[in-house]
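Table 4 source record.
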Amino acid sequence: MKCRPHGQHSVILAEDVSKFVEYTGERSEHGAILAGSRQVYLTFPAESSFTEHDVSNYFSEVGPVEDVRIPCQQKRMYGFVTFVYMETVKRILAKGNPHFICGARVLVKPYRA
């Protein structure tokens, strides 16, 4: 996927939501994901240079993204992505790892409280 410059956003029209949402039940083969969880946990190398916006653009191709948080850390890089629909989380986890965002290797895991 090509990274977009700052200021470019993805928009999903209401009539297109059905393309991204599909009910597949509450359980997943990935373990005890929080019921109704709309969030995933990311880990990636400290030298990664992508932004929260780049992460949002990457995952919005699977489904609508609500929020991306990448705390500032020097040695251990991680983040959280919250989606509009929990079905998007199921699709992303089903794709497996790794993901590549702007050339950086990103591992996606289910969010656990």
